[in-house]
Amino acid sequence: MKIKLSALLSIALLLCFSAGCTNKQENTETPGIAGETFWNTTADVVRSEPAKVWFGKDGTFVLEDQHADGTDEISGSWTISKDVITLTAGEKKIIFEQKDDKTLVLKTTLAGSSPEDLFSTEYTPAPKPSAQPSEKPVINIVTPSPSPTPAVTAAPTAEPEDFAYYNASQENPFGKSFLKLFADGTFTFTEVEGMGAIEINGVYGQEGYYLMFSNFDYVPENKKGEPVYNFEMEVYDEDTLILRKDIQSSKSGDVFSISGTIPAGYTDPAGVTTTWIYTPDPKWGVPQGLEPKLELFPDGTFVLTENCFSNMGQYSGWYEISADAYLCHVTDAASMKGFAGGDVTLITFKYDGGQKLTLMNDLCMSLIGDEFILQ
Questions:
Q1: Whether 50 contacts 40, CB under 8 Å
Q2: Nearest partner of 119 among 95, 141, 143, 142, judged by Cα
Q3: How far apart, in whole angstroms, are the C-alpha atoms of residue 283 and residue 156?
Q4: Model pLDDT for residues 308-343, shown as the tens digit of each residue
Q5: For the segment 96-123, what is each residue's pLDDT rounded down to a tens digit?
Q6: Which of 19, 146, 199, 210 is the most interior residue, by most CB within 10 Å?
Q7: Shortest CA distance to 72 belongs to which of 40, 98, 120, 36?
Q8: How many CB atoms are located within 10 Å of the residue 201 CB?
């Protein structure tokens, strides 16, 4: 039975010297996670067992990330500052947020694990639906896709309606890609390319304002030829979803709607420049215009201007949108050299679907928990 989606609407300053800020002190006590193994109890990927990460008491870690093509084993060192755990393996950094001694929340995208996946010491094996990659199915399409059934306001009757979410951003005279959701937690995504198409079947679930799709019977590729093991769609309203990852011919930011059209007045935050500003407590006397500011650009790049007390510094790089978070990957922070936060390579902002972003890192003036408001 197919179902229709319902929308889910729902500083302290650092002491500084004139040359800049001082870094926060690390927790000198032995963290409760030392010596423990945490298992991914959220992700649903083709695998014999979930991903896991072991934290050694000597400050080393081993992470085994299970995915459809096998296992990625990553090892290196780990540190913890407040509730943020940073795993470092060469130039790669993996971020976890600690909820308690038994539960961690992943904040970094891995091949087989997604941001917001829960890792727990309390792992109980559970049966997973089997799904193995198959040969690429091709469906010949010689006429445009039929017009979708209009959305209805009445409650579903005993005979369920047949509808889909069509890619309203796609321009193809032979039809549009479309998504169907089923009551048993499975889905079918038909990706139309020219006169042909591929069909992807798998399972889905909802986390906050996002639908998470995984466990594919066929693993597609993006335009770069990279495999896509999972993808997300943001819930705009009950009739409209926004794709948040490239899949074959569909692009991140494409609008999928039951009507097959883009809603009137719709503006995708990821498609325009947005500015988010943190306003420090007035007692600190920060002049207007010198507040920390995050700018997200339509080309997928960002600039975060940080107040370093004695001057202003900047982080720049590229960002990605995941479930309930903006992940800003820093590629240039030269102006932050010598200040607290100058070594940060990944800046995470938690997103609640409203008008604010919550910082999940300590920078210089900006600290964990500070809120950046959309201007």
A1: yes
A2: 95
A3: 56
A4: 888 889 999 988 877 678 889 999 999 998 899 999
A5: 999 888 899 999 888 878 888 889 888 7
A6: 210
A7: 40
A8: 18
